[in-house]
Amino acid sequence: MKASVIVAVYNNEEMIGDCIESLLRQSLSKKEFEIIIVDNNSTDRTREIIQKHKVKYLFEERMGRARALNKGIRNAKGEIIAVTDSDCIAHKDWLENIVKKFGKKSVVYAGGEILAYKPRTLVEKYSEKAGILSARTVLKKNIFYPPFFQTANAAFRKSLLDEIGLFDEALVSGHDADIGWRIQWKGHGIDFEPSAVIYHRNRTTMKGLFEQFKRYGLSRTALFKKHRKMLKAFFHIDFVNIGGIFYALLQIIPSLILGRTELERKKPILDFVKRSAFLYGKILGSIKNKVIEL
């Protein structure tokens, strides 16, 4: 079997059905891949909805997305492990295009583009314009942290995971960055396939945006603590993000006056929420993990 698609899900009865149906409509021959959905101890109708579809259902009692994904990997038969999230919709050619990327033996770790799925609210439209979760955004050159693919759209050769190990179950979040960095530090490449597209539902409210970036900040400090030796740093301060907070504050009043659309008028407010939430999460994480990562 060429590929195993793995989705970890927790209490997502609203979206898991659409996700599965998009995977069942893939252009790749059904004989060449399997779909594994790992229920991470959901308490809503998630299990019931999964079992209405012709997919492999697994249950992981221990909480944590990394644990759920690892259970799927251990039960996978495919040579290639492709992962996406339960709040995502896969383009019909997604899996076929990602599998083609592995036609070269040198490719062991790949991912595709992540686009916004039907943005409706102001925050969703802002996230789309800002490229939040876009692979192109995450893969932009960073002088401190290596690039990686998010688990909304990533694929691994299974033999690679046998070599470097699975997702780190000690991490509450950031396990996708962790495994991507470990792969590269072992000397392997990272390959982007823009035609392998996943559509992701962004946060719909300002509160949701704040919580999302607070979680990113918290996970960043845990990653810094774990990989400080490889990163060759005792501390790290993101002056670009901190400077962006002050810049956003300065832009709020002019934008409210001069902005032609609601998004133009409120973009600096949302920039401030996003950046300050990221810093707030890093402050909390720095205290918790006893590091300086701001």
UniProtKB/TrEMBL annotation:
Keywords: Membrane, Transferase, Transmembrane, Transmembrane helix. The chain crosses the membrane at residues 233-253. InterPro entries: Glyco_trans_2-like, Glycosyltransf_2, Nucleotide-diphossugar_trans. Residues 4-164 form the Glycosyltransferase 2-like domain. GO terms for molecular function: transferase activity. The keyword Coiled coil does not apply. This is Glycosyltransferase.
